[in-house]
Design brief:
This protein has about 120 residues and is mainly alpha-helical. The chain is built from 6 helices and 2 strands; from the N terminus they run H-H-E-E-H-H-H-H. Strands 1-2 form a two-stranded antiparallel ribbon.
Length: about 120
């Protein structure tokens, strides 16, 4: 199953995980995140599988400033909720969340690295 989310879905996650952050400063970022996670090139998915699609969302939402103060929290929550909606329930520890945060603040961070990090998180059955 390939799950594609939309901007209202991301905005709902931002409302839940954004800890009272005011309205987004740049709506183009969630629009770009939606387009990126469902990108195709020559009829092939650019991001193949739920972890890489979640990573594309997390990377775009976490690296591009669009919220006043909760970009990283919303990006991480979006990744967790996307995986859950895809049938993968992850249970990241505080250490896992800190590692993702540290990765996202690194200018050299890539979606591939984020996907690797997400795959390392424990799952529940």
């Amino acid at each position: 199953m390939i799950l594609h989310i939309d901007v209202p879905w991301i905005l709902q996650v931002a409302e839940l995980a954004g800890a009272g952050d005011p309205a987004p400063e740049d709506y183009g970022v969630p629009v770009a995140a939606c387009a990126r996670h469902q990108a195709e090139l020559l009829d092939q998915a650019v991001y193949d599988g739920p972890y890489t699609r979640a990573a594309a969302l997390v990377h775009t939402l976490g690296r591009c400033r669009w919220l006043e103060r909760s970009n990283l929290a919303v990006a991480a929550a979006t990744g967790v909720m996307y995986l859950e909606a895809s049938g993968i329930t992850v249970k990241p520890s505080t250490t896992d969340a800190a590692a993702l945060r540290n990765l996202l603040v690194d200018p050299a961070c890539t979606a591939h690295q984020i996907a690797h990090q997400l795959r390392s998180w424990p799952t529940t059955t």
